[in-house]
Design goal:
The complex is a heterodimer of chains A (about 500) and B (about 100). With about 500 residues, chain A is mainly α. Chain A has 21 helices and 4 strands. Chain A has a domain at about 305-503. Chain B is elongated. Chain B has one domain: Helix Hairpins, CATH 1.10.287. The chains are: A mainly alpha (about 500), B mainly alpha (about 100).
């Protein structure tokens, strides 16, 4: 056995190793410190922080990890490149934000001794996402997706005594298991057709002219079913509103940002390394004509954003409304992928960075209100502008940014997507996306109407937010505002990080 | 004497997959739905092993099947725990009766 190449691969997966060790430590310390779970939280925070440092230090490192030892080819199970590292940064930063979030959400605090399990499962999810961002072999794709899914099924129903939590986890499990079974069958067909599960070798196979088209297209659609479930794109989005409403708010925020980011990273890599034959002079990707991803993606993304936006119009539960809004955002980002060029991918990266900040912020406000009134109904937000001006102001900023109005970060994200669309002559699609944004304005502004235009009752009491929560909110809303004006650092970072290691 | 070839295996696996989908779509009991999912996973396993054997692709396909068996076991464990929890809160496990989250 040749262990040297195996050890050489280990230096590429430092963040994953850190998270694995943290996961083991959390399990051990959870047993030792049966009463006080603060230490478990601190270990988790520390581990994720170390992993973030490792990732940021190796942002531009490239290489293949875990190649076959017999030297038949160099491509491995994992591909390390700046594109994957960017998504790793997004996943890790959002985990840090969610860790603070969980520690200040009554839903999680009230579970008492079970908090140890909560953080262990969250680290399991994180590990799956980190592997998803760099998986370049269909088996690694399937395994990492299952690692993410299995932990998130449990976390969605973490408050097991509340019946809507149990329901959410059952629905998530059934939809998830079926779509991953479809994906596995698709992978088995591709294995049968090409004789390999490695994406690079599949690409090499596709360069050859004689291919059996129909089974390959069928297998591609089956694999898209698995990924479409993770990024909650139509027509695989039915679980999203139910699960997002039922799960604890912290987990809802985590699923809507980190799990979606990992799904997008996986999908873009699959498309780029598996199906793109070469790039032309304008940087547009020339796809293998075996399967028309372009039309499929445009159709699916328009369907996704329209369904998301129109269903959100009549939701009175804020969590459910934000769930539909996150479906719509997945549609916008999928448009960025549908451009099929590096410019489109840059737009998706920028959009994700801003989406992370504003979405976690919005869910944090929902969590504060839910802790106070024990419901997420829109009437809990009546005259919030009077009761707690700071909270209302922060929430307004997040909502305006989610709509995509200037001068917030959400505007810049949408702007880059539209520029990419117009540059590749997809003007009709850009117009549809723009009209969708107008629709979304209604349901976001409706919440602001409840906050500012509903007259407070005579005996309405004001309430204040704890200082640390206030700092957290100001940090998020200020960065949303600041990045709306001074956005060049994020744009430059995204442009630097678009390198997907291809053939 | 009939020679068993790749086609026969593919027919079996496709039949199993279709039966799995049929079970998922028509059954109301959550445990039966899970059995349907199990059939779908195992049909993919048959595909992997048959392709590896008849396509001369090496041991890769059989390794994949081993991974999938382990994952299916883990998934079944988690799924049954969730179904048990559903039974405790709703006192039944019929998927069409568990619909509080709907507008």
């Amino acid at each position: 056995m040749d262990f040297i190449s195996l050890f050489a691969s280990l230096k590429f997966i430092k963040p994953e190793i850190t998270i694995s060790i943290t996961l083991l430590l959390v399990v051990i310390f959870d047993i030792i410190f049966n009463e006080n779970k603060k230490i478990v939280w601190l270990i988790t925070l520390f581990g994720v922080f170390i992993a973030l440092i490792f990732t940021s230090l190796n942002l531009l490192v490239e290489g293949y990890a875990f190649s076959p030892v017999d030297g038949s080819h160099n491509f491995g199970l994992l591909t390390l490149d700046s594109f994957g590292s960017f998504f790793k940064v997004i996943v890790l930063v959002s985990t840090l934000l969610i860790l603070y979030f969980s520690n200040n959400s009554n839903e999680i605090i009230n579970t008492g001794k079970r908090q140890g399990e909560y953080y262990a499962l969250m680290l399991g999810m994180l590990l799956g996402m980190l592997f998803m961002t760099s998986a370049s072999d269909l088996i690694m794709v399937y395994l990492s997706m299952e690692l993410l899914s299995l932990s998130s099924y449990v976390l969605a129903g973490f408050l097991k005594l509340r019946d809507r939590d149990s329901e959410a986890s059952l629905k998530y499990l059934l939809y998830g298991a079926v779509s991953s079974a479809f994906m596995l069958f698709g992978i088995s067909l591709i294995y049968g057709l090409t004789g390999t599960t490695n994406l690079y070798l599949i690409n090499l196979y596709l360069q050859a002219p004689q291919i059996n088209y129909i089974p390959f297209a069928l297998a591609s659609i089956m694999i898209f079913a698995g990924i479409g479930f993770k990024i909650s794109s139509a027509p695989f989005h039915f679980w999203t509103p139910d699960v997002y409403e039922g799960a604890p708010v912290a987990i809802t925020a985590f699923l809507s940002v980190a799990s979606k980011a990992a799904g997008f990273a996986l999908f873009i890599r699959l498309l780029k390394t598996g199906f793109v034959l070469r790039s032309n002079e304008q940087g547009m990707w020339i796809l293998s004509d075996i399967f028309d991803w372009h039309s499929l993606l445009i159709f699916v993304s328009i369907l996704t954003m329209t369904l998301g936006n129109f269903s959100a119009l009549w939701q009175n539960n804020l969590k459910r409304m934000l769930a539909y809004s996150s479906i719509a955002h997945a549609g916008y980002m999928l448009l960025g992928v549908a451009v099929l060029s590096s410019q489109g991918v840059v737009a998706v990266l920028i959009y994700f960075f801003f989406y992370m900040l504003m979405n976690i912020g919005a869910f944090f406000v929902v969590s504060i209100i839910a802790d106070k009134y024990n419901s997420e109904d829109i009437h809990g937000y009546d005259s919030l502008g009077y009761k707690n001006p700071w909270l209302a102001a922060a929430f307004s900023i997040f909502l305006i940014s989610l709509t995509g109005l200037p001068p917030t970060a959400g505007f810049i994200g949408k702007l880059y997507i539209f520029i990419a669309l117009v540059d590749s002559n997809m003007i009709a699609v850009a117009v549809i996306a723009l009209l969708n944004t107008v629709v979304s304005l209604y349901y976001y502004i409706r919440v602001m109407k409840h906050m500012y235009l509903v007259k407070p009752a005579e005996n309405t009491e004001t309430f204040s937010t704890s200082p640390s929560n206030l700092v957290y909110l100001i940090l998020l809303s200020a960065s949303v505002l600041l990045l709306g004006i001074y956005f060049s650092p994020v744009v430059n970072l995204a442009k630097q990080c678009v390198g997907i290691l291809g053939l | 004497m009939l020679q068993v070839g790749l086609t026969h295996f593919l027919i079996v696996s496709t039949a199993l997959f279709s039966l799995g989908i049929y079970g998922v779509v028509t059954r109301k009991n959550a445990v039966m739905v899970l059995m349907g999912i199990e059939l779908m996973l195992n049909s993919a396993n048959i595909n992997f092993i048959a392709f590896a054997r008849y396509g001369n692709f090496g041991n890769g396909g059989q390794l994949v099947a081993l991974f999938v068996i382990v994952l299916a076991a883990a998934e079944a464990a988690i799924a049954l725990a969730i179904v048990l929890n559903i039974y405790k809160t709703f006192t039944n496990v019929n998927v069409d009766e568990i619909d509080n989250l709907k507008e």
